[in-house]
Specification:
Number of helices of chain A: 13
CATH architecture of chain A: Orthogonal Bundle
Radius of gyration of chain B: 22 Å
Strand order of the largest sheet of chain A: 1-2
Order of helices and strands of chain A: HHHHEHEHHHHHHHH
Largest sheet of chain A: 2 strands, antiparallel
Strand order of the largest sheet of chain B: 2-1-3-4-5-11
Oligomer: heterodimer
Strand content of chain A: under 5%
Helix content of chain B: 40-55%
Number of strands of chain B: 12
Largest sheet of chain B: 6 strands, parallel
CATH topology of chain A: ABC transporter involved in vitamin B12 uptake, BtuC
Distance between the termini of chain B: 68 Å
Distance between the termini of chain A: 65 Å
Number of helices of chain B: 10
Helix content of chain A: 55-70%
Shape of chain B: globular
Radius of gyration of chain A: 19 Å
Shape of chain A: globular
Number of domains of chain A: 1
Chain lengths: 305, 355
């Protein structure tokens, strides 16, 4: 049947990664107390500059690096507005999303013209793990996945460990829960918040680059198609933890994959496209229990000195 | 106090960024006003007209019909005197009405709406600006005196592409063609301009290979390249070795997926062989560029005709692009034969997708 076909699990994984990475990014930002809804925009920035630099330098890894740098810079702008100037974080995030959509389309047209990004743009390699591909079922799931899938999974586990098992992770969480208490203990609230937001930019940009130079080798306007917003849902669904976000992203990825596979069995495409969104609503209305954000999430902090 | 000043500045910057964002969306096209009329002094008949093009959400770089409409407009600008052009790309479906109104309000003579999805918006705006001419691609609006519509019998192009796919599939004319006798279609949305292609493709394919299988799936997007790639990969995993995307920008991802999997693809709307040489066997094309050029010329000459303009095989409004080199003559013969059968009325091409 449908579920015994390993193809659906391969699709699940490859559709989950571009949701999981920005969701983990968002987790970093919100855990330190800065609401971040700009993942969609930062993904677009990452996707575009990933392709652009991959083409200009002829090396997709340089493209990935450029995507990370540009994503971090965009996040830095968000961080400055949210932390230094205590501007409304939702408005800032939305501004970045709209700005990024316009900027990338504009740059695409001015730098590459209307025929789009060049077809000979290099992409990141795909990788089949040597030992795994001999295992009959799992082998196919991990066959020819982009190298970013593996990097992404490692990053997600590292993030979880970092956030919940290291001293710096604890400090980051403390400034998102009670910045005043953290401040009185001498923890640099602003600096840690900057770190959280910039990390979110880096993760989101890798997610964007995964779309543009991971599974493809080109950029189209708005190619993220709302994945940054679904990532936001995955972050909440995952209760602001990296592993939780990954789990949620896998569920969304699975419902997308299910949509793709079931269409071949004659189920209406319009119905199937609703699955991820219906799941989101179900998840947020209590299926997974209460999801409580960090206590100081979204509240600017003025250092008392 | 200092804080407050900062906040105000930031608010201004944010608003500015928002405006810039919108601004780019709306005018990222070439706003090149052509004053080349002086060099063209010989043709005095050409009065200056302003032409505005509104793309749908696929955008100008969809390598597909939005792009073709732009090509048609550029040709008109180069070949006809005194044509001024401007482009607006729609970022979302809610942009259609404001984008169309913007040109009409600015006194443009002709506003071109690319795509079926804009039909309602055109009906609404055209009534508000009766002095502006409108051209809509892919939808038949009748009964509004200032609206012309270009309808393409794309099922005929789909049929010919289907014949090519059937020939290649059945006779294993290219390497890596498996014995599953399966081809895959990646549609954008279940809307007439997409479904006509698909219906024709199915019929053409089955005319050659009645037992073959055509997988049809829809991504519900014209811009999500990643989804296009995933859908194609899924079809390839089911044994499809020729992929026919009818999905604008999304379809580029499908063609790239076919290329990576070393199978084949058939392009759509325009000759897309440049996207993946050696992968794209042919393309089902419709001459959106011709319809745009003709309408611009008609507006300039004062011969604009409202109602439906039909483009089909008989006036070369649809067809297929040159075949990939290395295919035997039998394919060309089969295509020509199918063409004759359609032209003579012996074959009626359906516009309904077989489920």
């Amino acid at each position: 049947m449908v579920f015994s076909n390993p193809e659906i699990w391969a699709l699940t994984l490859s559709m989950a990664i571009p949701l999981a990475l920005p969701a983990v990014g968002g987790t970093f930002s919100e855990r330190t107390g800065v609401v971040n809804i700009a993942m969609e925009g930062i993904m677009l920035i990452g996707a575009f500059f990933g392709v652009a630099f991959s083409y200009w330098t002829g090396n997709a890894w340089v493209g990935l690096l450029a995507a990370i740098v540009c994503g971090a810079l965009t996040a830095l702008a968000l961080a400055w507005g949210a932390i230094h100037v205590s501007a409304d974080q939702t408005v800032l995030g939305m501004g970045i999303n709209i700005f990024a959509a316009g900027l990338t389309t504009f740059l695409l047209n001015t730098l590459f013209g209307y025929s789009g990004t060049p077809v000979n743009t290099p992409k990141l390699p795909t990788l089949s793990i040597p030992g795994l591909d001999h295992i009959p079922y799992i082998g196919i799931v991990f066959q020819n996945q982009s190298v970013l899938v593996y990097i992404g999974i490692v990053l997600i586990f590292l993030s979880h460990w970092f956030l919940f098992s290291t001293r710096l992770g604890l400090r980051m969480r403390s400034v998102g829960e009670n910045p005043l208490a953290a401040d009185t203990l001498g923890i640099p609230v602003w600096r840690l918040r900057y770190l959280g937001v910039v990390l979110s930019g880096i993760f989101s940009a890798i997610g964007g680059a995964y779309l543009s130079i991971g599974i493809l080798n080109g950029f189209t306007s708005n190619m993220t198609s709302g994945r940054g917003y679904i990532a936001l849902a995955a972050m909440i669904f995952g209760k602001w933890t990296p592993l939780g976000s990954f789990g949620a992203a896998l569920i969304f990825g699975f419902s997308t994959a299910l949509g793709i596979v079931l269409q071949g069995h004659g189920v209406s495409s319009n119905l199937l496209q609703m699955i991820p969104y219906a799941l989101t609503i179900l998840a947020l209305t209590g299926l997974i229990g209460r999801s409580t954000p960090p206590a100081a999430d979204g509240i600017p902090y003025e250092p008392r000195r | 106090m200092r804080k407050k000043v900062w906040k105000t500045c930031l608010a201004l910057v944010t608003v500015g960024a928002l405006a810039a964002g919108c601004g780019t969306n709306n005018s990222s096209g070439t706003n090149t006003s052509n004053t080349g009329g002086t060099s063209n002094a010989t043709s005095t008949s050409g009065k200056t007209i302003k032409v505005g093009l509104v793309t749908d959400t696929g955008g100008l770089n969809d390598n597909s019909f939005n792009h073709l409409a732009y090509v048609g407009m550029q040709e008109a600008k180069q070949q006809l005197p005194n044509i001024q052009t401007s482009v607006v790309q729609s970022q979302s479906e809610s942009d259609y009405v404001p984008n169309l109104s913007h040109f009409a309000q600015d006194g443009y003579d002709l506003v071109i709406a690319v795509g079926y999805l804009m039909a309602d918006a055109v009906q609404q705006v055209a009534k508000e600006y009766p002095k502006t001419h409108f051209l809509i691609i892919d939808d038949s609006i009748t009964g509004i005196p200032n609206v012309a519509s270009a309808i393409f019998q794309s099922q005929q192009a789909g049929y010919l592409a289907g014949v090519v796919a059937g020939m290649v599939q059945k006779n294993h004319l290219l390497k890596n063609i498996n014995s599953h006798n399966t081809v895959g279609v990646v549609g954008g949305q279940e809307i007439p301009p997409v479904d006509t292609y698909i219906a024709g493709f199915q019929q053409g394919f089955h005319s050659v290979d009645p037992t073959g299988k055509v997988i049809v799936e829809y991504t519900n997007s014209f811009s999500d390249e990643a989804a296009g790639s995933q859908y194609a990969q899924n079809e390839i995993a089911q044994g499809a070795d020729i992929i026919f995307p009818v999905a604008g920008g999304t379809g580029i991802g499908s063609i790239k997926a076919a290329q990576s999997a070393k199978v084949y693809a058939i392009g759509v709307d325009t000759d897309q062989s440049y996207l993946a040489p050696g992968t794209v066997i042919t393309s089902a094309i419709k001459r959106v560029d011709t319809s745009v050029f003709d309408t611009i010329k008609a507006v300039q000459d004062g011969t604009f005709k409202s109602g439906v303009n039909n483009f089909d095989l008989s006036n070369n409004g649809v067809g297929i692009a040159p075949l990939m080199s290395g295919l035997p003559k039998s394919v060309t013969d089969a295509v020509n034969q199918a063409k004759q059968q359609i032209l003579s009325g012996k074959v009626q091409v359906s516009t309904t997708v077989q489920k």
